[in-house]
Amino acid sequence: MLQTTDALADHAAWLDQGVSGGNVLDFGRSFTRPDGSAGEVAFRLAFAALPDAQAALFACQIVKALPGGRGALTAHPNGAVAVRKVLAVADEPSKAASMLAPLLATKASGSEAAAELALANGTLAILPPTRASAACGHDVKPGALRWLGLVLEVTDLAIVAGILDGASIDYIKTEAGICVTPAEGQGATLIFSAAL
User: Fold this and answer.
1) Which domain holds residue 38?
2) Which residue stretches of the chain are H helix?
3) Boundary of a domain, candidates 72, 89, 116
4) Residue-wise pLDDT tens digits, 103-152
5) Of 16, 47, 72, which marks where a domain is finished?
6) Do 54 and 91 have their domain in common?
7) Which of 2, 65, 96, 138 has CB atoms 3.0–4.6 Å from 90's, for a disulfide?
8) How many CB atoms lie within 10 A of CB 170?
């Protein structure tokens, strides 16, 4: 998912590039705060179907934001302060990055060992299966481009380990940090990495 300020423009660009994944989707929902007052949030999504990939892409525009900001929603007991990277895996990272770069209006850098694309609020890293396996602590199969997980920047890895231990959630310590592999039926690997 990409953050955008204009999902309609993204949809038009992806139509022009021949990768539109369907119609724009507008949706919203009402909610009630603990104090009884009501509110509403609304979003607009544009979709891209990536060629030669086992992954899809969408951009999300906040049409009507949560009143009062998102501060309470972004604070987490694990100390996460940012999504440092979105991880993807592909047999040919530089080829995958070259395909994604124009869709994301950015430039790709790197090699077959790994490729990166700079995004407005983070980095998309594309790893070959061997490097992805080392980073994630589990076997990552070869194949076409697909999403792998997130690298979350945290203030203290010991706090994360304590929370995971307390919740009986299995994890592995890898070169990248603390890795939580996907549970059955889930697809995202979470890597908790110390803040830079």
Assistant:
1) 2-72
2) 7-16, 71-74, 93-104, 129-136, 157-166
3) 72
4) 888 888 887 688 999 988 889 999 999 999 988 888 889 998 999 999 99
5) 72
6) no
7) 96
8) 10
- Same domain? For 54 and 81 the reply is no
Phi/psi-derived region of residue 55, left when phi > 0, alpha when psi is between -120 and 50, beta in every other case:
beta
| pLDDT tens digits for range 163-183 | 999 999 999 998 889 999 888
The DSSP string of 18-75 is T-B-S--EEEEEEEE-TTS-EEEEEEEEEEEE-TTBS-EEEEEEEEEPPTT-SHHHH-
Q: For residues 105 and 173, state if they share a domain.
A: yes
Whether 81 and 161 map to the same domain: the answer is yes
Cβ contact 88:124 at 8 Å: yes
Give residue for tokens 């007052």.
37
